[in-house]
Structure formats: structure tokens, C-alpha cells
Design a protein that fits this description.
The complex is a heterodimer. Chain A is of the alpha/beta class. Chain A is built from five helices and eleven strands. Chain A has one domain: Class I glutamine amidotransferase (GATase) domain (Rossmann fold). Chain A is globular and about 40 Å long. Chain B has a domain of 174 residues: Alpha-Beta Complex (Phosphoribosyl-aminoimidazole Synthetase, Chain A, domain 2), CATH 3.90.650.10. The chains are: A alpha/beta, B alpha+beta. At the A-B interface, α1 and β6 of A face α7 and α9 of B.
Amino acid sequence: MKVAVIQFPGSNCDLDTLHALRDVVRVETDLIWHKNFKDSSYDAAILPGGFSYGDHLRAGIIAAYSPAIASIKNMAKQNKPILGICNGFQILVESSLLPGALLRNSCLKFVCKWTRLRVETERSAFTKLYRKGENVRMPIAHNEGRYFIDEDTLSNLCRNDQIVFRFVGENPNGAIDDVAGICNEERNIVGLMPHPERASEKILGSDDGRKMFESMLNWLS
Amino acid sequence: MAQLTLAEVEVTLTKEEIEYARKRLRREPNVLEWAMVDAEWSEHCSYKSSKPYLKLLPTKGKRIILGPGYDSGVVDIGGGYVVTAHIESHNHPSAIDPYGGAATGIGGVVRDILCMGTRPIAFLDSLRFGLIDKSPHSRWLFKHVVRGIADYGNCIGVPTVAGEVEFDESFEKNCLVDVVALGVGRRDDIVLAKASEPGDSVILVGGSTGRDGIHGVTFASRVLTDRSEDDRSAVQIPDPFTKKLIIEATLEATSTDHVHGLKDLGGGGLTCGLSEMADKGKTGIEMDISKVHLREKGLTPTEVMISESQERMVFIVGKIHEREICDIFEKYEVPYRKIGEVIKEKYVIVKEGERELARLPTEFLANAPIIWRKTKKSRRQMGRRKPKLPDDLTSILMRLLSSPNIASKEWVFRQYDHEVGVRTVVKPGQGDAAVLRLPNGKFVAVKADGNSSRCYVDPYIGSASCVAEACRNVVAVGAEPIATLDHCQFGDPNNPEVFWTFVETIKGIADACKRFSLPCIGGKVSFYNEDTETRTAIKPTAVIVVVGLVDEAKHITRSNFVEDDSVIVVGKTKSDLGGSEYYRLLDAFNGTPPSIDLGLEKRTLDAVLNSIRQGFVNSCHDVSKGGLAVALAEMCIDANVGAAVNLKRVQNMKLRDDELLFSESNSRFILSTKREKETLRFFSKRRIPAACVGDVKGDRLEIAMRKSKVSCRLEDMKEAYYKAIERCVE
């Protein structure tokens, strides 16, 4: 079993995600420069957080045109798990692998803080090992994390059980319906704004996020 | 190039310097040469006024691999790893363009870490502004400086983990923006800013060279005027995305053995970068100006040589490995050009194609003649009468908690990504210093401290106290102080009274460092922080950064009280209200600052660190701005629990109640413990005053004293403490 962490110019949570996978969850993982990514060698792929292409034009949009995205689409068709964290989520949305858009935070500022989330479904490649309704803690750090989608599609997402995480208590970015993370209809692609790799070890404040990576392994086994 | 006379060239050199240059060269330098000398000999680059005094600072220690004089200090932390640290300021640029000035300040200091071949892992920011509750201009500076730091640091993926902010009317026009960077790397991978091998290639990497930042260093080496806003072109343009690529490309390149030298281009641009590398390597460099990749056409050779365009590095690479290194730059799509080579002849030679434009001896260019400046003891108004004891000390405490100097800086650090890198263990607002984990299993603690009010009333005591306070903060999280950086900021050094405060400041820092066995690994001096409009210089400000090391995770201590603990006050409280926040609140500013007994301070630091290592201590906080009352309140607020204490049990009974509460005496801590008796015995054995004053409990902070009583609801304190800054700026 082998996981790819894809490195775009400007990715900055790539090494953190690599650390969580290699050293914490202990799964064979490669850090791959986006131009060199070949999907056939991997069982799962993670698009890490950061500022791909400096967020120029719009967060995630330039990376969405990287050749790596074609490979990601191939993997998606084969039902392999794909996770987008923060900027990775923005890239998945910009490449239409997930529905909706991520807008500027409603407070118009970058926000870095720990948030409480509710796991809304265990039926996804990255939440299999959680209990539905469970509360978890993970930090956010973003400027454009306000999830937005039209009402009809939102009710579709809800009906299909595609909302994966919701903010509990405080909604830090103004996301519609408190959405913090979603998945596709096939449930193998997940995108979320909070950072599970920053919440994978107790010494950093919480290891609630680690189960997302362990769920991925469980889904693959 | 048309021959201009010296009178037609804009130089800031003094008459003596011009004479010295002519005498050394035995000819009249041309315009380009004058411009190069002017940039390199600016106060900013040459330290020509401060150098002789900086020699007073101790710089040696068993862990110190490199001290001052390099781009950053290098400290051995064991297991083959090193920590690097550096401090920079961007005061002048931030005063006229707060967003760009602050962002490029971060951009500059990160290159200093990078060019040692180490990965930047953390930033701290130490900021000073005018009174944001009164001045719209200061609010504008404050908001945009914070956003500039946030946008740049967040984008390049380096967390901003700690800092401090001070508000004082003397910073109304001249805000101070100091940024600190820490790096970590393998000892074997350290690269020096040196060009020692003739024949090596000189490769310019990164952003293109444009007209931004022209005369940046000479702009920073004079006072601000009402025309300074016209100098916005002297402020560089930030490009964090390019910087992020340069970081990754540089670290990949330095992990090979083929990079022989590396330097960032900051103040003074190519002129300073090349001459300093050649000087350190005892060589020369010949470069071709037509090879430099330009942002726009028509730059004159002078502009190319002194432009401070951002995101540029110079690599010195062995010729046979040039291709291999350049392939790395191509992978990251970072522009690069070979612009010259290292030569045996000790000259910096600038050519355009075959035509020689400048030829200056390396040693001459890189070493400005020292200026011995006059000093004159500055007189402050002292000894105003003590203010009357206020009736309602509870409301004074509440006002202190919501004064911008004491209130939580949450509004600032929420905008900084302080988690990226998955190293931040003690996060902003959780302890007295930030704590980050290191690859060798240890932890680094770091904190920056400054206190301009104290330095103003007595620069020697004030600056020594800043060293002590930064040490206390690092000790409070359970770390042993191992190295320090200093940043000293003043007005115009031509004024003997200003220069006297500089000399006193350095003496204070040096004496404290020597007493604490704390080597200084780098620093910075910034003069000319005054303006012609208000005709005032800033209060003299020393910012001290202390780096500490924690050996084991279990020693890491935070500042939040633990319920049902006993509260212990360590150290002696005296009548020390000169330069205090309490006097500022009552508008009774003057007085003598808290004295400092460096020997007692050292023994207290050692004892508190030992008590933490022995496992007695559940929480620990140093006592500084706002005194015991504010320190107790902060420990309650952080923990969301109250406390009931009686300060009659703190020794000195001659004190007035307001002195007891708000005095800012040095050498004090508050700890909480479940092992009260053992802890008290521990300190008494070491002849350090310590007293148990009460317990952590309830939902109020109640402080009993001889005559009066303070009682605050936890919820009210939280509201005052957390919301104050937001209320000022939003």
C-alpha cells in the first residue's frame, strides 16, 4: 500500500502531511512534485494545504490545471481514496471533483484557531473509523474557507449524506450550514478546511485527526 | 557613462568619509563606485557607529558555532542538529508603507536563516506603535503591519509563534517592526556567506532586479521627514510565492555538497552581498552587469548594483557542479543567471560586457571607517511625587487588563498561522514563551521582550531588565536559556544624548548576558528612528530575544493555573513603579525604574528552572507588566478558573496596597503546585524568597491586602482582556 502526497509550487503542509502518514500512521508515502505524479503507482493521494501558486488569481485554481489533476481524476474513477486538506480542498473544488466553492472568510481575515467539528457521516473513505455524531478537535488556518453552494445542491448533498464535517459551537468562517468538509457521491473523495495532520499527535493538542488517515488505510484493506 | 562630479551624485557619506575614500583609492571614484561605497558604508550595512561598542557583548559559549557577523547565529543543540536565529527590523519602510514594509521585513529575515542552509521553522514579531486607542494613524500602521506579516508568513509556510506589542506615544510616526526567525538544520549542512575558491561561479537566483528598494539603506540611515512618503519606492515589493519556491530550491541545493557559499541580497543589494562574501573569503568577485535579469529595461548600472529588489539570493557554486545545481532551480521554476565568478585578485569588479565600470578593493569596500561619536548623559525628569492611593483598586486592575499594552494579543495571533510545520507545542497565549519540537527529540523555547518605558528612564537598567524578563519567560516554560539576540533602536546618533542611551543600553545587555552566562549570537542596531515633524526620537528600545532548550517533554510548563493548586509567589516585591503600566494609566510616568540585582536574578532563574525539572510546578508565569495583580489575573484567565490570595503573606509589609499589586520588580515568578511544602522548602534552601499566598478555586479573582481588597469576576476579566484590542481597531 502506497500513498502519494502531491507537492504543488507553494504547497506548505506537504511535509506535515508526509510526517503524519510516515511517522505517525506509519504507511509508505512518497512526496511527489506535481509534474512527476503518475497515478498507477499509488493506492491513495493527498492534496496538502498551503498556497499553491501563491493563491494568485483564486485559491486553488491554477493548481487545478496541473497535469497531476488528470491523474487524480483517473484515480477517482478507480475508486481510490483522495483527500484534499485546506488548499487541497480548494483545488478539488476548482477542478470540479467536489461541488461548491470556497469564498473569503466572512470576517475578511485569515483565521488560525482550534475548532470543534461534528463527524456527520462515517460513510466515506476518510471517516470510516469515527462514530457518526462524534465531536472532534482540529485547527483551521485559512483566508478562503467559507464553503458556499446553492440551496438545491446543498439539500442534495444533505440528502446523499455527503456532508462529512460540520463546525460545532462557533462557525469560524461563515460557511453555509456550518459545512467544514464534504465528499463526492462515490464517497472516495473528501475535502475539508481543518487540518487533520496538525491534530494527529497528542503533544500538538489533539490526535483526533489521525483517524482520518487510519480510516483511509481501513478503506483500502 | 557620463562623468558626473561628486556634487551631482546623491550620497550620504560624510566629508571625512569622502576624503578617506579618495586617499585610499588615490583617485576620484566614478559615479557607480561612489554609489556602491555609499550603500555599503551606510549605517544600516556597516554598523560604523555601533561596531566598537558591540564588542562588549559576550559571544562565546560551549554551544555556539557561529555568533554575530554572519547572516544568523548558529547554536549546537545536540544529535548533529543546530538551531539558527536572527533578528531584523523594518522600521523606516513600515512607517511609510506598513503592509509592504512589514512583509518584506519577514522576507528579509527568512533569507538570513535560509542562507545558512537551515530550514526556517518559526517567526516572532516584536512591534511598537503609537496609542491605537487615540491615534487613527497608529491604528492604520498597526492593522497593516499585522496583515503584512500574516500574508507573507502564512504563504511561505513558516508559523509566527510568539511576539510582543507595545503602544507608546513616542512611536506615533516611527513604528518599530522587529521580526525574528528561527531555523533548524543539520550541523553538516551549514553553508557560509563566503566566496573563498577562485574560479567558482557566482549565480544570482530568484526575483528579477528592478527599481524597488533603490537607496533603501541610505533611506533607513536618516530621519523621516514630511517628504518621506515620496520615498515609497525605497520600500521593496513582497512576493512570498517566489520566496516559498526559493526556500525549497535553496534547501534542496544546500543538501548537495556543491554550494560553497550563499548569501541573501538584502540592504545594499548586489553591492553588499558580493563585497561581503568576497571579504569573508579573502578573494574578489568579477561580475557582468548585463547578465543580471531585470524587471524593466533601462536600469542604470548604479540602480542594478544598489537595488534591493526582494527574493534574491547569490550562490557560489563549484564550476563542475553548476549544471546539477541549476537543474534544481529549473525544477522549481526559479529564475537564475550566472553573473560572474570568484577571482584571486581582491577586488570587486563590475563590468558591462567587456567594459569595466567599477573596480574597488574588497577590503576597502566591505569595511567602512569607524565613526567615534560623542556621548552626553541624558537627563530625564525624575522623582515626581507618588500619586494618591486610588480608592477602587479593582477597577484599576480591570482597566489595566484592558489597556492595549497588557490585553491579550489574540486579535494579532489569530491572523498568523502558528501551527504550520507541526512543531508548535506551546502556542500563542498558552505560555510565557513559544515551545517548538525539534528533530532530535528536544524542544526549543523562544521569546522576545522589550520595554521602552523602562529603557527611557534608565537605559542601562532598562535593557538589563529586558534580558532578565526574556530569560524569565523562557525559564517559565521549563527551558534553559542558551543564547540571545539583541536589537537596539534609537533616534539620530548625531545627537550625543541619543548616542549615550545606545552605549548605556549595550552595557546593560552585556552585563546581564555575562552574569547569566548567556552568549549573544547576533543582533542589530537601528538608528535614525525620529522624524522632523514631531521633532522627537523614539524612546530607546532594546528588544531581547532569548532562545532556550527543553530536554524532555514533561518539563514543558504553561501559564494557566491548575484547579485546587496552591499559589506561590517567588521573589521580593518592592516599591518599583517607575516606568510601570500602572503609572502610565495614572499619567504619572516618571520615576526610577525597578532596580535589578543580576546575581539574585540568576539564582532565581536557576531555582525556578530546577523546581520545574523536579516536577513540583503545574503552572508558571513571570511577573512583569502590571505586577502581581495582572500576572494572577492572566493565570486565571488562561485556565478559566478563579483564585483567592492574600498578599499580606508576600514579605515586604511597608508597601502601599497599590505598590504590592502593580509594582514591576524584577526577579519574580508566580507558580502553582500541589506540593506546597516541598516547593517552599526548595526555595528557602536556595535563599530565594517564596511564599504561599492562596489557592486556585472558584470563579473570581480575590486579592486581600493590608487595607483594601480586589475582587473581579472571571467573566469580566476575560471580556476586558480578550476584547480590548479588537475594540480599538475594528
